Amino acid sequence: MTTFEFYRFRFHFRALDQVHFPLGKSANVVRGAFGTVLRDAVPPSVYSRLFEPGAALGAAPSGLADWPRPFVLRVAHLDGLTVPAGDSFYLDAHVFDLHQPALVHFRAALSRLAEKGLGPGRGRAELERTEQLDLEGGAQAVWEAPAAASVAILDRDPEPVETVAVRFLTPTELKSDGALAGRPEFPILFGRLRDRISTLRSLYGAGPLEIDFKAMGERAARIELRRSEVAWEQVKRKSGRTGQVHPIGGFTGEAEYAGDLAEFVPWLRAARWVGVGRQTVWGKGDVRVK
Q1: DSSP string for 187-208
Q2: Angle in degrees, CA 283, 263, 183, rounded to 5
Q3: pLDDT tens, 53-67?
Q4: What is the mean pLDDT of the chain?
Q5: Count of CB atoms situated within 10 Å of the CB of 52
Q6: Phi then psi for 196, rounded to 5 degrees?
Q7: Regarding beta strands 71-74 and 19-20, do their DSSP bridges make them parallel or antiparallel, or are they unpaired?
Q8: Which of 52, 125, 192, 278 has the most CB within a 10 Å radius?
Q9: Cα angle at 110 between 41 and 205, to 5 degrees?
Q10: What DSSP state is assigned to residue 134?
């Protein structure tokens, strides 16, 4: 059985002041200060492993500019939301490091981030509780030590699948031959997803995947993009530290694929947990199978 294991955590906060998350930039509200508070809240070795893994692990594998960080944040549900003082909100983190416990470090960093203030008005909040979710959304309270990791099964679906619709919920950027892909062609989508899951599993999880990468890629090339209804979202962020402006957009919408998809559908389902494409750590590339 081919599997991918990870932890799914939910952090619940209570707003002490009004907290506003600008439309399309909820991830930016968190990312702007997360690295700074993480550096202050955890030992240097932990910070390096979580936020700058290349510093500890050396040169990235061929085809990757940097080592992937061992987590993604899920905050798109906060887009455009204004939370009054006294009300609650939450954010999710999917953590892929099975070897070194990370829950206590995330809790420390997110608690400090909330205390310092979130959003344009720097509204303060306090971390009230932490839950661990399973794949179906069932929750149990956790604080320092997590329960068993969730297991996503990547084996071929037992029943034939000839068509599948995929929803790109958050801006997604896919690269092909060094350039951004204009359409979510299946070989590109699957290739980026396969390589991401493989790298995360090799680096932080159970080890390398025992699959035939070349043969899977050849079969993926035979999948047809039957319908593409995606639109590019132009979103930018300004770094508070350097003042530089960075694009954080990508395409959202829906695509439909046709062909022998039974072996690929489990991987597409797993994209919900790991993300696909660029800047996934901040919530981009959240893909769902309809």
Answers
A1: HHHHHHHHHHHHHHHHHHSS--
A2: 50
A3: 875 565 555 556 568
A4: 91
A5: 16
A6: -65, -50
A7: unpaired
A8: 125
A9: 85
A10: -
